[in-house]
Amino acid sequence: MTNDTHTQHGSTHHGGAHHGGAEKPHILKQPKQVWAVAFACVIAFMGIGLVDPILPAIAKDLQATETQTELLFTSYLLITGIAMLVTSFISSRIGARATLLIGLGLIVVFAALAALSGSVDAVIGFRAGWGLGNALFISTALATIVGAASGGSSAAIILYEAALGLGIAVGPLVGGLLGSIAWQGPFFGVAVLMAIAFIAITVLLGKDDKASRQPTKLSAPLRALRDPGLLTLAIAALFYNIGFFTLLAWTPFALPKTFTPLDLGVTFFGWGLAVAVSSVWLAPLLTARVRRTTALAIALPLLALTLIVAGVFAAIPTVLVVCVIVGGLFLGVLNTVLTESVMEATDLPRSVASSSYSAVRFVGGAIAPPLAALIKALTGSVGIPFYVGGVSVLVATIVILARRSALARVDGEAEPPAITEADAIGLGDAA
User: Which residues does the annotated region (Disordered) include (predicted)?
Assistant: First the structure.
């Protein structure tokens, strides 16, 4: 998931536990500024799967190779990951409102420019700018909703998760519908919707309290990777994301050319719905019964098996579609459990831990799509890329199991280090 959506989502579960308490959520009784940010969140999360249904159409209309077209994911995810290293530094200095508006503004501009492009190289470049805007917006949105919501943080968290699920599920469907008109349709649609969100936040979101800001060091996310638990999770997530984005980005090319953008949109709507349901409901049910590392050791091999089955039966569209949707169930669980683990692995500020983890894991997401296309070009097989994705997820499993001792704190088995040490890494003057 291509944007820091699950990082923020995952952190909510423990945040709710700390702050929600016995408060009864009043999810529909929110200030206007909360609805403005929530609406923008839905649109931002739609961007994860929006491009999927139009990948073959872009390749055809812009006379691009499959590898070139898959770079639409790579440029977006790579820049998102790199930008995550500086988002906490920026937002801690200019405030959440300014960070949100800059992020939204960049998405509007670069989505519109992508739609107006006449070459695949230009679209790839503008998707990179979109990734920068997405990183700035998503990294700040949850904190803004929690800070402005009424009814306690539990109500805010439910609202955020609802926006997350709705965006992930609807994105491919909107992409398919607008992509049926022209490949530029989804890009124009995002630009218009984000422009509306920009206006809504400008009008409805109040100014930040400058006195409450705690400046974060520029070097903090990189220094955070010295923590063995955080580093272990980041490396595992890198290999896991190769499997994730093989399933997401390669499947549109593996399916028959008779699949229209709308057909692909409906397929990935099912995928997004599975991700949303398992992320919000199945993951908490699982972690209530077993340790987080055990949950990862169960779900990762199941995802690997799903990818291998997809490779074996890649020539049978019905089986491949089922694998995509079933894979979504495991992806939702894994995204949530991995990110909750990140939030518990260290006493660093959550924005810092999130930035470190996201920067590393997005490298896997950036590698996978063009790698899959290159493997197919070299082997002539549409199924082998799925095997590679499955093996990569198995590597992630091995990393978790081999480094389980470094994850003792994730399972609640170790005393946390002194908070002052974490503060020394995370806060203070720019380094």
Answer: 1-23
